[in-house]
UniProtKB/TrEMBL annotation:
This is HTH cro/C1-type domain-containing protein. One of its GO terms (molecular function) is DNA binding. Residues 22-78 form the HTH cro/C1-type domain. Pfam families: HTH_3. It comes from the Bacteria. PROSITE patterns: HTH_CROC1 (PS50943). Gene3D superfamilies: lambda repressor-like DNA-binding domains (1.10.260.40).
């Protein structure tokens, strides 16, 4: 049971970091939430992007990867950064 709770905490933390990452990438690319939503396949509205960025709803993995590409970032690097942000300090080295 403890492992399951720990895994849920890791999962929730990961999505929280993904939310911050989406906002950061979008702003770095100079896009509004609406503009980013229109570039996704399938397109999504501004409210959906807002919900992803605030962590209200988790971003689908495929959409996260598309956002990385659209904003000019490597999905592999961004995913690695997200995973590393969830590691305890003493395990990162």
């Amino acid at each position: 049971m403890k492992l399951r709770i720990r895994q849920l905490g890791l999962f929730n933390g990961l999505w929280g970091e993904a939310a911050k990452s989406i906002r950061s990438m979008r702003k770095d690319a100079g896009l509004t939430q609406s503009q980013l939503g229109q570039k996704l396949i399938p397109t999504v509205d501004q409210a959906t992007i807002s919900n992803w960025e605030t962590g209200k709803t988790p971003v689908p993995l495929t959409s996260y990867f598309l956002i990385c590409f659209i904003c000019g970032f490597s999905p592999e690097e961004k995913t690695k950064q997200l995973l590393e942000s969830q590691q305890p300090e003493n395990k990162r080295n």
